[in-house]
Amino acid sequence: MSAITASDVKALRDRTGAGMMACKNALAESGGDLEQAVELLRARGEAQAAKRAGNEATEGTVQAYIHSNGKIGVLVEVDCETDFVARNDAFVAFAKDLALHIAASPSTLAVTEDGVPSEDRDREIRIATEQAADRPENVRERIVQGKVDKWLDEVVLLRQEHVKYEGQKIEDLRAKLASDTGENVVIRRFTRFAVGE
User: Domain for residue 1, yes or no?
Assistant: First the structure.
């Protein structure tokens, strides 16, 4: 069996829209065979989430989390396609867990990479470029990209590992909920409040 690379996982993810861990597991199960991994994901209903991604999510829920000391609070909006799913216990629990995660993750800037302010991204690129200045020229670009990617993992909500579910990224949890409910699930926005900030 060949080793599963990040580019293999990305290729499968781009093709099916399934979550990262679901893609990785399907590739491992299929011995690295992309076509067989696609079939596995389709059989599990994971690939269907990609087809629903274009559906408009106009229903949903707003959930809140207030830390026990009363100094941190979060509001989060998670949307779906129907009122029926918006009232579903698993959907509401996902939104509540998301609010808890955001409260515990003060570095979170945006839901997606596109939402990260360009001035913050440019600042990180400048810092990474300065840090890589003494490295050989042929590897500088990869070093900068690696540092920026690591920073994005910290500040982009969908790329973060959930504080409550070790090893599971927010995007994978969102994709699984979309698969389970049969609807497009969108984390629309969040606001984090902290006393003194």
Answer: no
CA triple 122-123-129, angle to 5 deg: 90
Q: What are phi and psi of 130, to 5 degrees?
A: -65, -40
Whole-structure pTM value: 0.68
Query: What value does the CA radius of gyration of the chain take, rounded to a whole number of Å?
Result: 19
Range(s) of the domain holding residue 74: 59-112+156-194
Considering the domain boundaries, does residue 139 fall inside one? Answer: yes
Same domain, yes or no, for 66 and 98? yes
- 161 and 150, same domain (yes or no): no
Residue 112 CA to residue 1 CA, distance in Å, equals 34
Are residues 131 and 100 located together in one domain of the fold? no
Domain CATH for 12: 1.10.8.10
Rama region for 32: left / alpha / beta (φ>0; ψ in -120 to 50; rest): left
Q: Tell me which residue of 35, 39, 41, 5 sits closest to 23, measured CA to CA.
A: 41
- What is the full per-residue pLDDT of the chain (197 aa) written as tens digits? 457 887 888 777 767 767 777 788 888 888 888 888 878 877 776 655 555 555 566 788 999 999 888 899 999 999 988 888 888 899 999 999 999 999 998 888 999 888 888 899 899 988 988 888 888 888 888 888 888 889 999 999 999 999 888 888 999 999 888 888 888 888 999 999 988 87
Q: For residue 168, what is the domain's CATH number?
A: 3.30.479.20
